């Protein structure tokens, strides 16, 4: 049995009752982004990335457009140290990109960090210590004053070494485990650090307020951020940064509400990799802005390549339903969704729309390197005529009449249901070919001649069900009607043409016609056939013969 009595609320709502952020309805501009993939993401991997893998990931982050990248914890291991040295010594850091390094507030670790970062064109020195009640009591066993002193001693040494080492340094301080810290105390510690660092509007300092472990609903974090934003000293010289983890599955919501509450910057990772349930997913955040028409200033136009590299170097897997990036996030298997998507796509095409508002598809998949073919309409036993017909039309060019779409839809669904598997677009097309197209056996009309006299007179040769041939002729009010009457006379069958449609079909450079015929039989049933030919009459005859052979 689970024991709920073991748990209680462990977060702190700030001493403030009116919040401005609750009145805002959207985020107006992108925050500044910092990727912590190479640090928080890396430290949580089963096998941390090798130097080569980190280099490849770094280049990807630069390509996406990150201007601040936390490249590691250089005092942690030789690989971490060497990675930073390689970036610096091989001039791999673009001019407009700043590397960030993490250090605990411990003397030898801060010193090692400065040693590692020497020669970088610019760098953010990120120092942290835990401030939460749980860490104060259980880990550090120190009073509030003593914990504050760890932070201020760290700040003092960072400032001193920054003056001793050549280089363009900026600073970041994190009261780690902020969400388990009393807001008034977190404020006191951050203000004490700021008093030492003395930031200015020209040289601002980053104060990063992490959701090291998520403890509350998202609105509480937003309250905490607005409280800190209102009460931090040197606010015009502070870049207020967020660093949410995802323990309650609310990392994105925490970040979005905290941005409404006044934060300027976000630290996170691609696909939400990071400690435990991960850091906040920067792709989701950026793409959420994009869907509101706000430029995220990050480029995810080749998502498949980003997924490939990420999966290869981290040995993680991008879950199929990960927003924007997962393999299935644009897929519709179910009939009503497919029908709406197909109609929405046609609407968009007919009206020549620029704005995107296709039902069920939040963004145009082609914006991020995905395709309509294969990514969107997927066929299984839950699918319907709308989607199946749309796929056949979009990918193979066959535009079936509505009643034939319905028949085809049920045929395809039933095959998928019995095979208990998805059908690929090629398999769907094969069902169409096998069921309807140019089925000129056992009955066939290899030859037809026409005379225009009191309507149309057709003289045809019929291959009979037993393989023999027979000449037949009849009048009709059109060529196909005349052929139909002649066929009925030859075989003694009882049917009428209930549906006929045709359209041109482009196959590379050759242009064919596709024709569709529905025959209603004396017993009330309807059979369907399709025909293709360069000659429109031959296409119609083939469609009719196919429908007749389907009885
Ligand atoms: C929330 C986060 O993600 S924070 C980042 C965490 N990332 C990592 O830890 C990855 C890299 N870390 C490492 O490689 C190692 O932990 C090192 C190299 C940094 C330090 O290694 P070690 O000194 O061997 O061990 P360890 O990490 O266990 O040290 C714990 C000690 O540091 C203290 N400490 C931990 N964090 C801090 C801090 N931010 N500031 C000051 N002291 C700290 C602990 O209280 C403990 O003190 P004690 O020795 O008096 O008991
Ligand atoms: C080092 C800090 C910012 C961190 O990773 C966290 O608190 O989650
Ligand atoms: Mg973290």
UniProtKB/TrEMBL annotation:
NCBIfam families: PRK03739.1. It is an enzyme of class 2 (transferase). It comes from Allofournierella massiliensis. Keywords: Acyltransferase, Amino-acid biosynthesis, Branched-chain amino acid biosynthesis, Cytoplasm, Leucine biosynthesis, Magnesium, Metal-binding, Transferase. Residues 31-304 form the Pyruvate carboxyltransferase domain. Its EC number is 2.3.3.13. PROSITE patterns: AIPM_HOMOCIT_SYNTH_1 (PS00815), AIPM_HOMOCIT_SYNTH_2 (PS00816), PYR_CT (PS50991). It is found in: Cytoplasm. Catalyzes the condensation of the acetyl group of acetyl-CoA with 3-methyl-2-oxobutanoate (2-ketoisovalerate) to form 3-carboxy-3-hydroxy-4-methylpentanoate (2-isopropylmalate). It holds the Pfam family IPMS_D2. It catalyses: 3-methyl-2-oxobutanoate + acetyl-CoA + H2O = (2S)-2-isopropylmalate + CoA + H(+). GO terms for molecular function: 2-isopropylmalate synthase activity. This is 2-isopropylmalate synthase. Residues 439-551 are annotated as: Regulatory domain. Its cofactor is Mg(2+). Homodimer. CDD domains: DRE_TIM_LeuA (cd07942). It comes from the Bacteria. Pathway: Amino-acid biosynthesis; L-leucine biosynthesis; L-leucine from 3-methyl-2-oxobutanoate: step 1/4. SUPFAM superfamilies: 2-isopropylmalate synthase LeuA, allosteric (dimerisation) domain (SSF110921), Aldolase (SSF51569), post-HMGL domain-like (SSF89000). Mg(2+) binds at residues 40, 243, 245, 279. Belongs to the alpha-IPM synthase/homocitrate synthase family. LeuA type 2 subfamily.
């Amino acid at each position: 049995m689970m024991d709920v009595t073991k748990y209680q609320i462990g977060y702190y709502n700030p001493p403030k009752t009116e919040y401005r952020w609750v009145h805002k309805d959207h985020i107006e501009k992108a925050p500044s982004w910092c990727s912590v993939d190479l640090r928080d993401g890396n430290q949580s991997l089963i096998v941390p990335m090798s130097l080569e893998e980190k280099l490849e990931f770094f280049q990807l982050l630069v390509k996406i457009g990150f201007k601040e990248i936390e490249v590691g914890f250089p005092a942690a291991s030789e690989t971490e140290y060497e990675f930073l040295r390689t970036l610096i010594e091989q001039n791999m850091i673009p001019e407009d990109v700043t590397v960030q390094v993490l250090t605990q507030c411990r003397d030898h670790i801060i010193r090692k960090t400065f040693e590692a970062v020497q020669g970088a064109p610019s760098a953010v020195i990120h120092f942290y210590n835990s401030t939460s009640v749980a860490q104060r009591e259980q880990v550090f066993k120190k009073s509030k004053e003593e914990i504050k002193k760890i932070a201020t001693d760290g700040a003092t040494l960072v400032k001193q070494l920054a003056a001793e080492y050549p280089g363009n340094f900026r600073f970041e301080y994190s009261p780690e485990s902020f969400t388990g810290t009393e807001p008034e105390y977190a404020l006191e510690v951050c203000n004490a650090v700021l008093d030492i660092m003395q930031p200015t509007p020209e040289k601002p300092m980053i104060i990063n307020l992490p959701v090291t472990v998520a403890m509350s609903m998202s609105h509480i974090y937003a309250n905490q951020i607005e409280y800190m934003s209102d009460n931090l000293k040197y606010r015009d010289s502070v870049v207020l940064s967020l660093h949410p983890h995802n323990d309650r599955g609310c990392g994105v919501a925490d970040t979005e509400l905290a941005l409404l509450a006044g934060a300027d910057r976000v630290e996170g990772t691609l696909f939400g990799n990071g400690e435990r349930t991960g850091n906040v997913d920067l792709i989701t955040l950026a793409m959420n802005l994009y869907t509101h028409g706000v430029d995220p200033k990050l480029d995810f136009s080749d998502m498949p390549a980003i997924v490939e590299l990420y999966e290869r170097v981290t040995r993680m897997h991008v879950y199929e339903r990960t927003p924007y990036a997962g393999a299935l996030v644009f897929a519709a298997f179910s009939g009503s969704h497919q029908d709406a998507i197909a109609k929405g796509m046609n609407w968009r095409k007919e009206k020549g729309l620029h704005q995107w508002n296709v039902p069920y598809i939040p963004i145009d998949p082609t914006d991020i390197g995905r395709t309509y073919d294969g990514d969107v309409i997927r066929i299984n036993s839950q699918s319907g005529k709308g989607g199946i017909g749309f796929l056949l039309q979009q990918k193979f060019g066959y535009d079936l009449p509505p009643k034939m779409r319905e028949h085809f839809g049920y045929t395809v669904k039933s095959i998928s249901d019995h095979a208990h598997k998805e059908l690929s677009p090629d398999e769907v097309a094969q069902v169409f070919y096998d069921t309807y197209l140019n089925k000129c056996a056992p009955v066939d009309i290899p030859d037809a001649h026409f005379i225009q006299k009191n309507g149309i007179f057709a003289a045809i040769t019929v291959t009979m069900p037993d393989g023999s041939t027979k000449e037949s002729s009849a009048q009709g009010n059109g060529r196909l009607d005349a052929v139909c009457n002649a066929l009925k006379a030859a075989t003694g069958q009882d049917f009428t043409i209930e549906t006929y449609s045709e359209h041109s079909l482009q196959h590379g450079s050759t242009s064919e016609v596709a024709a569709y015929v529905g025959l209603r039989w004396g017993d009330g049933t309807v059979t369907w056939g399709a025909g293709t030919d360069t000659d429109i009459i031959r296409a119609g005859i083939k469609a009719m013969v196919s429908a007749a052979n389907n009885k």
